Amino acid sequence: MKRREFTRSHREQIVKRATNAAGYVTCEGCGLVLGRKPYEIDHIIPEALRPDEDRKRPLTIADGQLLGKECCHRGAEGKTRQDVKRIAKAKRSAAKHMGFERPKKPMPGRDFPKTEKPKRTAKDALPPLPKTQLYTSRG
Length: 139
Known about the structure:
Blueprint: H1 8-18, E1 39-43, H2 52-56, E2 64-68, H3 69-73, H4 79-98
Antiparallel strand pairs: 1-2
C-alpha cells in the first residue's frame, strides 16, 4: 500500500494548530519559532510502521505534526533519519520472523588443497624484446 498524504484542509488545520499566540508558526517537535523558515508536515508514526488495519482508516490531523526542516525533520538527528533506521529494523525483524535470515557462516564446500603459484621472474632475467620497425622503405 502506498503512503497516504494529508489533504489540503488537514495541512491548513495542522499549521493553525502550530501557530502560537503571536501568529508565528512554531515547530511542534522543539517549539522553535520558524517564521518564514521551511517546514514540513510529517506523519507522527511513519506509514511504513503502521499496521494494515490502521492504514485503511482515513488520516486525521492527530496523525500529523509540523516540523521545521533544519531543526527537527531533516537534520543530523532529525525524525526522517530516525524513521529510516526504525523502518529498516522492522523489515529485518519481519524477515527474520519469516525465516529469511542470513546464514551465520558461509556455505560449506570442498576443501581443495592450495596450489603453489609459480615464482615471478625478474625483468633482468628475460631476454630483450626485438625492436619493431615502424616504417618500411619502398623500393
